[in-house]
Amino acid sequence: LINEDLNLELWRAMDADLRLSVKKLRFDGLELGAVAATITAKSGKLFADVPRSDVLGRAGRLQIGFDASANPPIGKVRGLVEHPVVSGVLGNIFPNAADIVSGRAQARIDLLASGATLRQLGGTLSGEIAVTMPEGARLQTDLRQIKEVAASSPPGWSSLPAGRLFLNSLMARALVKDGTIAVEQIQGTAED
């Protein structure tokens, strides 16, 4: 599926205007809960506006666009998501990480990709993701031991040392370039 063409002729022929409101949405193993969306497709251009999803939070907006009339086709994801429950989002994407960080956040997403297959889109995905947690965050790990664990363990969430730390605020910014995500900055404040 990842290498298959996206059937651009079908995308170009599509003419639809949909309003969607569901109590529970599951997509490829990802549980999104209740979702409301508006989807418009015409002349090879698709636009989806998602003003509400239980996982993403009830405020903010996520917009997804795909232009099959461009050569190569272009996909965009932009949004500002207010107050998602971080553990719920992480738990859906990385099941072992659900309990590592908890709290409410604000996420700003701005991603762009081009290609005629999912692999091409993923390989060109570029942009920025920024997350702030101004109300604080709870980390279920011992930051003092992370350096030692990182040097001696395989990558992943399951090898983080157990512990607890409350941060008064947390901010993280990641850059995405050609399908690779790199954390550019993480900053937090905590009382000793």
Set down the secondary structure blueprint.
Layout: H1 8-13, E1 15-27, E2 30-42, E3 45-53, E4 59-67, E5 74-85, H2 86-93, E6 101-102, E7 104-114, H3 118-124, E8 126-133, E9 137-139, H4 143-152, E10 165-167, E11 169-177, E12 180-189
Antiparallel strand pairs: 1-2, 2-3, 3-4, 4-5, 5-7, 6-9, 7-8, 8-11, 9-10, 11-12
Question: Overview of this structure, please?
Answer:
The protein has 192 residues and is an alpha+beta fold. The chain is built from four helices and twelve strands; from the N terminus they run αβββββαββαββαβββ. The strands form two sheets. The protein has a nine-stranded antiparallel sheet. Strands 6-9-10 form a three-stranded antiparallel sheet. The longest helix is centred in the last third of the chain and has 10 residues, at 143-152. It starts with 7 loop residues before the first helix and ends with a strand. 13% of the residues are buried. The model has no long low-confidence stretch (mean pLDDT 80).
Keywords, please?
192 residues; alpha+beta; three-stranded antiparallel beta sheet; 12 strands; globular
Mean pLDDT: 80
- What is the radius of gyration computed over CA atoms, rounded to a whole number of angstroms? 19 Å
Straight-line distance between termini? 50 Å
* Series of H and E elements: HEEEEEHEEHEEHEEE
Strand segment tally: 12
The percent of residues in helical segments reads 10-25%
Tally of separate helices: 4
Low-confidence stretches: none
Residue share in β-strands = over 45%
Outline: globular
The strand order across the widest sheet is 1-2-3-4-5-7-8-11-12
Structural category: alpha+beta
**Main sheet overview:** 9 strands, antiparallel
